[in-house]
Amino acid sequence: MIKVITYGTYDMLHYGHIRLLERAKALGDYLIVGITSDDYDKSRGKINNQQSLMERIAAVRATGLADEIIIEEYEGQKIDDIRRMNVDIFTVGSDWKGRFDYLNEFCRVVYLPRTKGISSSEVRAEKRKLKIGLVGSAAFRTKFINEAKFVNGVEVTGVCASSPSNEQEVKDLFYTDDYDELLEQVDAVYIISKPEKHYEDIKKALSAGKHVLCESPVAYTRKQVSELFQYAKDKGLILMDAIKTAYSTAYARLILMVKSGKIGNVVSIDAVCTSLSDGIAIEEADLSQKWNSMCGWAPAAMLPVFQIFGTTYKEQLFYTKFQNKAENMDAFTKIDFIYPSGIATIKVAKGAKAEGELVIAGTKSYIYVPAPWWKTDYFEVRYENPADNKRFFYQLDGEGIRYEIVAFAKAIESGKVMSYVSEDISEAIVGVIEDFNARKNLIEIE
Ligand code: CTP
Questions:
Q1: Which residues of 384-394 are buried (b: 16+ CB within 10 A; e: fewer)?
Q2: Looking at the 3D structure of the chain, how many domains does it have?
Q3: What is the value of pTM for the model shown?
Q4: What residue numbers bound the domain in which 296 lies?
């Protein structure tokens, strides 16, 4: 029996795929089709397949051409598959010509002529792109513009800010200082205005029927957050809290690992986020345009706390050093969250520097994430005996922003919530900021 194997993504199955599978099948007696998993595809820079892995598998199965379907999950898997399954022929389309010659050592390699005039990319491109407008002028908006280029089906088209920008990425876009004008031209907005404007900016976009991705904190009071999420639901629109760390694969995996009990019961969480260069401030040196430490850093620092311990802490205590109290600018803030079974401490600063680590202590072992933990591709599970320590690496593309945009676009398309930051967490984050602004349980240091 001659065994043939072929690999592909098979997104939005088209006749080019079917012709390839027919010819692959005709090369032998038994056809194995390897379908690339979503994660594996991301690492190849192809992102936002329109269909999930399960849908793509179902489509290939429905052709009736595959005798066996497997999932391709890692680099180097092809050699393992070929050896393990005793494959005689490896085949793919001629667009890959030469790329798999190294497999000749293990089996025959055949490149089949690619069908002209059709590809998944073209099928996807026929769909209308989601137009996103940017609202505000925080410096990191250029990162968003660049990351959106990696995501199929979306384009950043315009920006609304109080003044035009010198940054090339922003200059290439349509510019207006009139929010209504921007809203007329887009399907969705990414809001990076100053936090005290978020509520108003979100409300206006939702009223205009536009989906919203907003930097955290999404509002200034708990009441406002629940009102906004309810309003979005009533209007059938997506509202997502933009904390990019939630979309870092390493971070998401470590949270899962903690929840599975790998380090035992969690007793403490220590998260530190600081920046002296002020990556979140805008071009103007004007203090009134800057984000304070609480708004700029605390949402990311609170994310692991609320995801692991939940949002119902018994008490919270702030220790703050102000840089300019009248403007509510904190140079440094430490918050202790007291839970029935553990303590969490976050330290955030725009006017002080410390090691930006994350340490999660458990009754069996602890997780250590080196600085800068909020955009990490790596973490360690550490034990009493260092010989038992385990290291975990995951590719991180675009600091998580790329996957955040994918989740936003998919949520809009499917009408389902795809956010990795749940509503109760958005609300808890805003609640802490509300308490800070009210100086509740706050000890000021000189
Ligand atoms: N294929 C083909 N003819 C086409 C398109 C694809 O023979 N017109 C083959 C590819 O060479 C590959 C298999 O079908 O062996 C799966 O291809 P895949 O990369 O999933 O599809 P594409 O349409 O090439 O996807 P994209 O546009 O995203 O690159």
A1: eeeeeeeebeb
A2: 3
A3: 0.80
A4: 246-444
